[in-house]
Each structure stands twice: as structure tokens, then as C-alpha cells.
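Example (one chain per record):
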Amino acid sequence: MIGGAALIEDDLLSSANLTRLLKDIRACRVCAESMPHEPRPVLRAHRSAVICIAGQAPGTRVHNTGVPFNDPSGDRLRDWMSIDRETFYDQRRIAIVPMGFCFPGLDEKGGDLPPRKECPPQWRSAVFEQLPNVRLTLLVGGYAQKWHLGSDAKKSLTATVESWRDYRPNFIPTPHPSWRNNHWLRKNPWFDEEVLPYLRRRVRDLLRG
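Predicted structure:
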């Protein structure tokens, strides 16, 4: 009984630590003077999450709504995972922790700028210390792949995704689900044929467990 009470107390303390951390992140203004808009950090996390989606950074629509992957890219990602919106946004099962928490702005051609470099050293390790139950991290795009895989990442995104079997069972690298990668997906049909069936089985098994 005493041991059980201690575990409950530890769980409550850990949950409080994550709640405080998320509050601090959402109040972060480290990049405020370097961006053309008010910072709006967007992420979702809970200590019970078993899957984490490590993306790049919020886009315009996500910045406006405060909901991660609330756009066509999110629709495609949910299709890749074979889950509905309700499951996708159940933070008790799925955490969403992008490389950059704020929309970084647009470049001269109207495309999204890279994730801000300030986020990972400021916050990222602290977040993952509070996610002890994550058993699968989807590495969506090259920035997440390089951060999580380190020297095990290949020289290109394509080479890293092609080597997806080497990173099982803890990681699955994918391209970003943006429409901008339609050409990549057509050029690399093995992603649909080989990676997605495994991804869907792994997601299904973890969510059932």
C-alpha cells in the first residue's frame, strides 16, 4: 500500500512537471523579436502517450487555429497512419512535438521558412524527458530525422526513409505529408508499398495495447 501511494504521488508530481513545462513553452517569447508575427507555440503532449509525431513547424493555418496538422498535410498524415481525427488528437495516446513550436514565417516564394533553431536546445530534450511511455516516434521530415537519429541519419531524406527498417521499432522516418512532396511520392512508390503498411500495423498495435 505504501509503495502504491508513493507511485501515485510520483505520477502526480510528474504530470505536474509536464503541465508546468507545457505552460512555459506556450508562454515562450525567445524568438519574438525575430519573427514578423506574435509567437504561438503549438504542441500536444501527455505522459501516457505511446506515439509521438515529430514534425517540422506549424504552417499558417496551424498558427491561426492553434491546432497541429489542422490542414491538408494533417489529412494525409492521418491517412498514412490509418486513424481518424478523434484518435489523432487524443493526446493521452498521441503526442505532437514539432522541431519548431511556432510558425516561422514565409520565404520570398511564399513557402514556409525552416523551423526556428532556438526551439530544440531550449525545450526539446525537456519535453521528451516527460514522455516516458512513447514507443514509436514518427520522424516527419529531414529536420526531425537529423535531430532524433543523429549520426544514424543518412545524407538525404530519401536515403533515410529508404533505410526505415534500420530504425525499427522506435522510429519510422517519413517525408513531410505536404502536397509539395507529391512528386517525391510518385517517384518513390516503395513508400506506399512498403513503409505505410508497416506504419499502419505498428500504430494499430500500439493504440490497441
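Caption: The chain has one domain: 2-208.
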